Amino acid sequence: MSMATSIRIRGQVQGVGFRPFVWHLATRLGITGNVLNDDDGVLIHAWGESPALENFRRQLSSDVPPLARIDSLEYLPIKDLQAPAGFEIVDSRSTGRISVSVAPDAATCPACLADIFDPLSRHYGYPFTSCTHCGPRLSITRSIPFDRPNTSMAPFSMCDACSSEYNNPADRRFHAQAHACPQCGPQLWFADAHGRRLNAPDGLAMDSIDLAAAALREGSIVAIKGIGGFHLAVDACNTDAVERLRARKQRDAKPFALMAADLESVTRFAHLDTAEAELMTSTEAPIVLLARKSDSERVADGVAPGQERLGFMLPYSPLHSLLMQRLEHPIVLTSGNLSDEPQCIDNNDALHRLSCIADAFLLHDREIVNRLDDSVAVVMAGLTHLLRRARGYAPAPLLLHDGFAAMPRVLAMGAEMKSTFCQLDTRQGTGKAVISQHIGDLENAASHDDFLTAMNLYAQMYGFEPQAIAVDKHPDYFSTRIGTDMSGTSGIPLIAVQHHHAHIAAVMAEHRMPPGNAPVLGVALDGLGYSEDGTIWGGEFLLADFTQYRRLGCFGHVPMPGGTRAIREPWRNTFAHLDSLGWDDIEATFSETDILKYLGSKPIALLRDMLGKQLNSPLTSSCGRLFDAVAAALGICRDEVSYEGQAAIELETLAWNARKPQQAPFPYAIDNDEENGLLTINWKPMWTALLGALSAGEDRAVLAASFHQTVSAAVCDLAVRLCHEHAVSSVVLCGGSFQNRLLLESVTRQLVARGLHVLSAQHLPLGDGGLALGQAAVAAATLQQGTTND
Prior knowledge:
Layout: E1 2-12, H1 18-29, E2 32-38, E3 41-49, H2 50-62, E4 69-77, E5 87-89, H3 110-116, H4 160-166, E6 188-192, H5 205-217, E7 222-225, E8 230-235, H6 239-249, E9 257-259, H7 263-266, H8 274-280, E10 287-291, E11 309-313, H9 318-324, E12 331-335, H10 347-354, E13 360-364, E14 376-380, E15 383-388, E16 398-399, E17 410-412, E18 422-425, E19 432-435, H11 445-462, E20 468-472, H12 478-490, E21 494-497, H13 499-510, E22 520-530, E23 536-544, E24 549-555, E25 558-559, H14 565-568, H15 571-579, H16 583-589, H17 594-599, H18 604-613, E26 619-620, H19 623-633, H20 646-656, E27 669-673, E28 678-682, H21 684-695, H22 700-726, E29 730-734, H23 741-753, E30 757-760, H24 771-789
Parallel strand pairs: 2-5, 7-13, 9-11, 10-14, 17-20, 20-21, 22-29, 24-28, 29-30
Antiparallel strand pairs: 1-3, 1-4, 2-3, 6-13, 7-8, 8-12, 9-12, 10-11, 14-15, 16-19, 17-18, 18-19, 22-23, 23-24, 25-26, 27-28
């Protein structure tokens, strides 16, 4: 029996070859009708015999293109049973009511990779080759639907050959919006530090890449315009070149990312298991943190000083693939900026800002609309965890539990560090979260401007109008100020969300927990978070759901002498912990230890006076400051850190070097703070044992491993105790301190062994990069509960 139906498909279905996929499927099954893009996604009108239509429906969701993701399908009968003669793809239409998803940029597919290395292909050596299965998406998008006129490919008119492929439904480049070739597409050229071309204006792209490769082999620093921004590149095995890059970029110790030609090249320098290899070769192609090999080839020591891991990625664009084919060694490929500034995306801006760093430039004339840093990921406890979510992942939405579908739309402003924002969109009867790409630290004025630019662009792209604004409770965060100003101007309600509650809620939302779910025990370990009791939180055990939380336990509070100076100078935290033991006794008993001798050179009398008078010495339960304190005690980053988390990262590296990583923990205690109704982890026994071990001359790597075991054991003991007392079966691990692989894997393993269900972030960063989702979820649930109660 002949039937007709319309099929509405929502999800990541534009710019990913979905319409050609529908055309192929319909043609093969004898279905007639049409398919188009619109503001809601993809709309299909289909006529055919009942069995064929049923088969068509089934294969629509089971055999989707590589980059597509279907969030929902809706079927409605069509009354007009007059079937058209064939099946066609019709022009996109827009009504201005936008709810479709923009696809992330995708790494070069195998077919396009074969084209650029095939001398018989007209795409041979062309660094901007792409098709519907790969290439730029968000980075070139100005508005949606994702059609060529709405992208930075608009100025490039297709030649006859490209136009023929673009309009042929049977071709994999059918309606590939970035499609171009050497005759009609973007062009590449090589220039010196002053922007003067060093190859002929009509020179081949391959000539420019040859010149760039030669410069890298000679030790030059080359600025490369990629898909989402500029990178600075040097030969990773050239010590002098790496050190020169550090000096010019003003980046003292923070590790550099690396790019290698292929997996075989990676394994010359780092260990690589199956999960890590799959992650590196995925369409997202992130930087993956890998364990460094100690008995093989080595990159320059300056690439990742004090690190056990190296961050490797594979070429994810034709330009990178063509360049790496010409090089014998991996290259450093770090963001094209001075330290803490946003990555350059414009040619003139790059020549202005990077000419003091780069010796030469590899440039092209396709505009980068949206800045995209490289994503960073790591495999821990057998699962992929994102540390930075940007190219390849953003802005793919996260689907939330259906319970969020009826809630208000929320714009969440995120944190101060590792900033992202989130649009919690409940239009079309679904709850989905669009989280921006990583933007950076808003303390930097340029990042602050970048945040506003990106937020305005997302609002335009998605036609998003929030019904509420969510911010962190810290009143001095730039993101909080921006949200507060927006609320004041627009009259939109403002919801302030506690930092660690947002961390926990982000993991709950990512794992699609329902708004009315039973509370979890959230273990939030990080550097600093604004509290409501006058202290600074950072080692927290909270009983939480989406609308409320209750603090059940924490790390013992210790002062931060000098306030924010203690973040930059780890020795101050060491002193604060030792002073809590009784400084005079500690000094008398352990005066011959290296750390006591070191502290003796500091203004201890002044600091003790500050602590006694409670001057600029706020109390904190911070896990990050505890790691800083122990790191300094073991001789790591005592005077100052040059980037966030440096002391903790190098302490973890030292622990990995222990001859027997599974060391016995130091003693600790769990105290009952009856005045505040809290259970607190008392680290004083650990400090006494650690000082004793230092006095005995024990190996520092062994002591670092024992410290990690101590924190893991204490966290698990308190978590299990609280779960039993409050009848909780699920534990959420969150906060930047859980980026520590030793800590996350040990805590997860022990909690699972004790019968608890453990959740942690995977699709969003463990640290502040995922905070905006938690803010949005808490704000939406809180407003919904208030409406329901009214």
